[in-house]
Each structure stands twice: as structure tokens, then as C-alpha cells.
Amino acid sequence: MQQWDVIVVGAGAAGLMCAIEAGNRGRKVLLLDNGKRPGRKILMSGGGRCNFTNMFSSPENFLSQNKHFCKSALSRYTQWDFIALVQKHGIAYHEKTLGQLFCDDSAKDIVEMLLSEAKAANVQLALQQQITAVSFADGVYTVTTPELSRQCQSLVVASGGLSLPNLGATAFGFQLAEQFGLKVLPLRAALVPLTWQPGDKAVFEEISGVSLPVTAEANGTLFPEDMLFTHRGLSGPAILQISSYWQPGDNVVVNMSPDTNLAEFLTSQQQAHPEQEVKTALAKLLPKRLVEKLLELNVFTNQPLKALNPKTIKQLADTLHAYVFKPNGTEGYRTAEVTIGGVDTDYLSSKTMEAKNQPGLYFIGEVVDVTGWLGGYNFQWAWASGWVAGQYC
């Protein structure tokens, strides 16, 4: 029977950070993972360049049933702390847009940085470990795999959510939480493309690949970014963002011209080019294939601009500034970047990430009901929650 001070389950962003911090305190730490290599989600994130944090990260960028829970961890381990670690290791990075920081070279740089920090902290790593049982007695946890049993005083669950099952995602963390009496809030895929209703698929799949800057709105929340038409539905950053707020049956309202008032634009075009056709004018602002599709859908009638009256111009502008899509659903966990829901924060200490009713049991990262926006925020939650737990476990 192996004895450890701390066993961390899950060698992803949160688990690695926690193991490093606990090891730095002199704790004897074992990091277990069910995969062949650590940091699998880090490696594929950001197109292989890892959007490792966001310069503008703040509690307002996170969804949770208790929106205050994340404040403590995020204030004690900030994006600037992680950036300092990246700089210490000489990793070159750049800001892409909206505060999103990416490696210049490869996401491997971040994984290698974390593994080198873990090695320096004497963390032991065991891969391809399938945990079959966890029990607790007399202040000690016993973690069983087919090969052997291990015991520890502190057990940290950093096993992630259900998103990207091809990277080894499982329900282990949620099942363990329930085993020890913690509530798990309903789970759903987030930061995920939305899919067409059958009728809309037949119409819009022909313009698959068309992309444009929009604002996308659902349930009173609005995101400006690009939207992409695909064979399956709507994607792109604006749609991935809004998917976290969208619920089945809801509409998504898209402003196809967020930066230009279409009524003013069409009126000015009418004055300058009265013989110009409506579709020609619209194609100056919107992708041509989209304009042709809107014409086919009778969103407007193609005629010379001089034939339009102010009321018709306003109606067309209003339609395109608030175009309504009714998605059928999402692409699900297969392509979702994160899982919304998870271990109810009411059952955890925001200071330590320890379960209130179960001493020595900690939950960090995506398994907890804290979900960030697209753009490096979920990694920042992983670093912060892992760091915090590592100070106490």
C-alpha cells in the first residue's frame, strides 16, 4: 500500500498547478491521470498554441450559480501571476485579440513548463491510471486502481468535465462528489457550436464557410465577435460565447451589421447611386453569398435603391440588425470546449476549495460549477483554483 500526503486526480491545467503548489510546500504528491500523456486539453487548445490566460480576466467573465464564489481564487492567483511564470520560463507569447494570450510557438511549451515545475517540486506522475474505487476511513482516503491501492490524507479532484470525450473526459469527478454527499448541478455543453433545425439546414448549409462580424444575443446577454455558417449550424467566437447562455428552445438574435447603421447606409447609397440594386449595396457591407441567400429567403426584394421608401428601408435594416435564428440544439460534448454546471460551490470553501462536509477532499477546475468565457478565462480558473487548493491540501 503506497502512502502519499496528497493525491491529485487529473493531470490537466488545474491538477498540474495544484500538484506543483502542494509539492512546493514539501508535501509528498502523486498526480494520477487516465491518459497516456499529461495536459491533453492544454496541448490541443487555441489551435495548438494554448490561449493560456486573458489579460482582462475578472469575476465578471465567469458563469456560476454563485457568481461570488470565484472571486477569492481569482484575486489570489491572477493572470499576471501566471504570465510571470510563463516569462520566467522564457516562453514567447502574444496577444491575439481582446486580451487573449497565446504561445508564439506551441502549447507544448506550457505543458513542458508545468512538468518542469512539477519535477522541481518532487511531484510523482502516474499515467494510464483507471481508478475503480475511492474510500475514506479514519481520516485517510484509499484510491484503488486495478494494479494497486494508494492512501493519502488529501485527495484533490481535477478530473475536468464531460467536454471532448476523445481526450479522455469522464464523469469520474461528478460521481465522486455525489459519493461523498456533495450536490452536482445539472451539466450541459458550453462554448459549443449551435445546430440547425432541419428546415434551416436545407437553407443555410449552402453558405457554409461564410463568416462575418456580428453581435449575438440570447437571454439578455450579448457578445460581439465573428459568426461562421457551417454545414451543421452556427459557429465562430460570437456563437461559442452565446452558447453558454442559450437554452433549448431559445432564439439567438444576430445583428449582422453591428458597426454600421443600415438604414443610414442604405439611405446614403440611395442618394449617391439611385439606380444601384439593393443586393449590390448590401454586398458592400455583408458577404455576397449571405446577401444572395437573404434575397432567396425574401428578406428583401431586389430592386433599384430609388424604389425604396423610408419605411421599407427601416424594415430591412431592423430585420438585419436583429435577425432571429432558432437553433435546434448544440453539437454537444464532442466539440464543446467546456462543461457548464458541476460540483455545487455551496458545498466548497472558496478560500481552500475543500469540501465543507468532507475533510481533505478538494475539487478544482472544470469539475466545479465555475465556467469562463471563451478567450483564456477557463485556463485562468484552472490555474487559480489549482493554486489555491495547493496552499492547503
Automatic annotation (TrEMBL):
Report the superkingdom from the record.
Bacteria
Q: Which Pfam families match?
A: HI0933_like, HI0933_like_1st
| Domain RsdA/BaiN/AoA(So)-like Rossmann fold-like per the UniProt entry, residue ranges | 5-391
Signal peptide residue numbers: none
Domain RsdA/BaiN/AoA(So)-like insert stretches: 188-338
Q: What is this protein called?
A: NAD(P)/FAD-dependent oxidoreductase
